[in-house]
Amino acid sequence: MPMLDAYIPDGALEHDAERQLLVTLTDILLKHEGADPADPKARSLAWVFLHRLERMLVAGADPDLPRYRIVASVPEGQLDNENRASMVQAVTAAVLDAEPEGRARDPFRVWVFTNQIPEGTWGGGGTIVGLADIAGFVIGDAEAGAAHAKKRLAISKAERDAIFA
């Protein structure tokens, strides 16, 4: 159940390139979450919101080139440190690839934020939905979903504990 918010300046990309970018970002997010981007069940849970930026400033002035902000939100446990870093790199490349030919390719014009929504706080369908519920839906097996969630949440906890150790 990943969600992605893409903040793209108005006119920064050609219409078709922007549309393809949003599809590509969906694929990247699903892949890094460990889902098959071609799986219709997984895709049905992957939502991308386009936020059109009429204006943004850098250091209080209009920037010479567009800046992009991509916010990926996934249930806790779905991204480990390695997947998070790989996803940031892939998203940055996809955004720069979508730009018109000849524009300076500067990865510092793309900021990517990876948010993991704490277990027990993701709401959908009028209820709280846990990682086990989401994984069970995509896999088609509640027990396998629960096993996946248990493993992924343990890894997430270990990585978090290592930061604060």
Q: Got a strand count?
A: 6
Number of helices: 5
Integer count of domains: 1
Q: Strand content of the residues, in percent?
A: 15-25%
- By oligomeric state, this entry counts as single chain
Question: Termini distance?
Answer: 30 Å
Overall geometry: globular
Task: Profile the largest sheet.
Answer: 4 strands, mixed
Task: Provide the gyration radius in Å.
Answer: 17 Å
Helix content: 40-55%
Class per helix and strand makeup: alpha/beta
Explain this structure.
- The strands form two sheets. The chain has a four-stranded mixed β-sheet with strand order 2-1-3-4, with helices on one face. The protein has a two-stranded antiparallel sheet with strand order 5-6.
- It has five helices and six strands.
- The chain has 165 residues and is an alpha/beta fold.
- The longest helix is centred in the C-terminal third of the chain and has 22 residues, at 142-163.
- It has one domain (3-123): Macrophage Migration Inhibitory Factor (2-Layer Sandwich).
- It is globular, with a radius of gyration of 17 Å.
- Helix 1 (15-33) packs antiparallel against helix 3 (81-98) and helix 4 crosses helix 5 (142-163).
- The protein starts with a strand and ends with a helix.
- Strand 3, helix 3 and strand 4 form a beta-alpha-beta unit.
Give a brief outline of the structure.
This protein is an alpha/beta fold.
